[in-house]
Amino acid sequence: MRTIAETDDLDLSSVRLFLTVVELGSVSKAAARHGLSQPSATARLQKLERQLGVGLLDRGPTGSKTTADGIQLAPACAELLTVASQLINQSEQLRDEHSRVSVAATRHVVDHFLSDWVSATDLADVRLDITEADTLRVAQAVRSGETLIGFTDGPQAPIGLRSQVVVSERLVPVVGRSHRWFGRRRGLPPTTVASATLVLQAPGSGTRDVVDAALAQHAIGAMGEHVEVPSATAARLAVLNGDGVAFLPTCRIERDLEHGALTQVPVVDTRIVQPVRIVWRGGRPSVRTARRLLAAIASA
Asked: What is the largest CA-CA distance in the chain?
């Protein structure tokens, strides 16, 4: 049996050159295909023969011919190159996996937090594949393994996932200039606000869940009419248009409050806080780069 050292000396390019000779029936033609001079190709093939201890080619005045042993070894040579190619392909896939992280996040997180978190960390070598969805679908994507990391903004941690709160923000009730409560200073009871026309995001939204949970603490729900919108951006536009009362994160309406386009509705004994969580499946993400991202954002 050949030693490991002899195996280590095998040159895959020489094996490939030999298979080209078998294919073309000529050392000179094989040398030309590989961009080698004929003497250089001949030297490589002779070295391969010495390493294998078997004559691969019969050399004669009219050219070289594959020996019976060479013909018998050709399939094993081809298999060796196939396995080497598979090794390279799998390595490339692993490198790609370790340099990419799939992330699902709510539109609110993408708009107001994610870019700052990423830019504040050393993730220049990481490609983020970001999917926007509501909190319900973000959690589903992480549970199914479709994405490695998610960002939700609901009142509770998604069931079956590990999570960590990375930021908390207030949701404040606001109205536009044409609303009867615009500029009101005296506090309203929660039941009065709940019975008004509310602008609410669609079910599945974390913000909607936070508002529903806050009203439930007062043993009430949205009792009046409500306008259902697909996003916080749409909710902001609706209240600017005077369509009702919306509970919106402070970061989304700071300029509107400052310029007087919106005003906060004072509500007695009500403070609504919306936590933003980073969520993942299992003890920790399986991909090293995802663990880096998780650690970086959690400590930002």
From this structure: 109
**Cβ–Cβ under 8 Å, residues 244 and 253:** no
The closest alpha carbon to 279, from 99, 135, 117, 182, belongs to: 135
pLDDT digits (tens, 9 = 90+) for 185-201: 999 998 898 888 999 99
Per-residue pLDDT of 91-144, as tens digits, reads 666 655 556 778 899 988 998 888 888 776 666 667 778 899 999 999 999 999
pTM greater than 0.90 (yes/no): no
